[in-house]
Specification:
Length: 310
Amino acid sequence: MIAVHAGPAAMAQDYPSRPITIKVAFPAGGPADVSVRAANVILQRNLGQPVVAENVPGATGSISAMAVLKATADGYTLLGTTGSDFVTAPFTIAAAKYQPDSFGLLGVLGISDFVLVSSVAHSFGNIDDLIDYAKKPANKELTLGHWGKGSTAHIVGADFQVRAGTTFLEVPYRGAAPALSDMTGQHLDLTFAPLGGSTLELIQSGKIKAIAVTGEKRNPALPDVPTINESTRIKNFEYSIWSGLFAPPNTPEPVAARLTEALNEWVASPENLTRINLNASRRLEPMSAAQLAAFLRAGEIRRDHSLAQA
C-alpha cells in the first residue's frame, strides 16, 4: 500500500513542480502505450506540468515495473502498463521481483475485450472452422503470437488451445503492436489482441481478419464478429485487459491522491468518452483510492483463476 510520509500538506501543495515521466511497459502502439498517451493531454492540463511517456518494453512488462520500483517514490516516475500482465508477471517471470500490491494503482485508463485475429491469408469464418483446420494433420501448423511467456495474451492462447484440443506454434513478441505488424505482413497466422486502437483499425481496413471476440456479448463496433462462446466447442470463454497507471511503493498519499484526481478528470472527460466509442472499449467510472485498491485485488483473484485454467 502507499505509505503516508511526514509533511503531507506541504508536499501536496508543491506537487508537481517539474515534468513527470511515465515508463510504459510495452512498445509504442500497444494497449498500454495508446492509453497512456491518450490521457496525457488531460493529465498535463490538470497537473500543470509536462507528462512524458517513455517506452521501456520487455519481459511481459516487468523491466519497466522493476525500473519504477527502484525509482524515487516522489510521484515523478510512474508506471503505465496492462494490469493483468502487471499482477501476473511476478508469478511467471523470474526477473519480476516485486509485489503487485506494494504499488499504488492511481487510476484505470481503459478496459477492452480480446479479439482473436488471423492473417488475411486464411479464410476461417468462425472458431469451429479454425479448430477443424487445426485438427487436420495434413494442414500447415498455425503460428500463434503473444507478448511473452506468462503474459495475458499467452494465458488466453494457452487456455484456448487446451479447451479446443489444438496445438499452435507459439511465437513471442515484445508487445501486441509488433505481433500485429507481422500479421499484416502475413508472417504470423493468429494472435489474441486487445480490441481497440490499432487492432480495430486493422480489422476495419481489411488488413487482418477478426474471427471471434472474448466478451460475453458481441461488440457493437464489430456486430458481425461472433463471440467465442457462440462456437459449438467452447463455452464460458471470456477475457478482458485493462491499462492502468501505478505509483511505486511508499509514494506519499497526498501525491498519489493528486494523481488520482487528475486521472479521474481524464476518465470522465468528453475526450475519453469519444475515444471509448471509437475504440470499442468499455466505459469506466472515476474511482476513489479505496475502490482502486479493491479493483487491483480483484485483478489478483482473476490472475489466480487464469493461471489455474492455463
